[in-house]
TrEMBL record:
Keywords of the record: Sporulation
Annotated organism of origin: Paenibacillus silvestris
InterPro entries, per the entry: SspI (IPR017525)
GO biological process: asexual sporulation; sporulation resulting in formation of a cellular spore
Organism ancestry: Bacteria, Bacillati, Bacillota, Bacilli, Bacillales
Family as reported in the entry's similarity comment: Belongs to the SspI family.
UniProt-recorded name of the protein: Small, acid-soluble spore protein I
Superkingdom per UniProt: Bacteria
Amino acid sequence: MNITLRQAIVQRVQNKSNDELQEIIADSIGGEERVLPGLGVLFEIIWQHSEANIQNELVETLKGHLP
């Protein structure tokens, strides 16, 4: 059975508590570059399931912290 990277990342975080998910994200931020695809998949899920106003807030937060 072949699974994609996206599927493997989703399987890794399934059934985690809120605290566990927060820890996974916090540990990945500023870490090794190899974790960036995982953060991208998690952000993709957040983006796809967020209302437009939340998406706008995310974009404004990003824009406000870019050099």
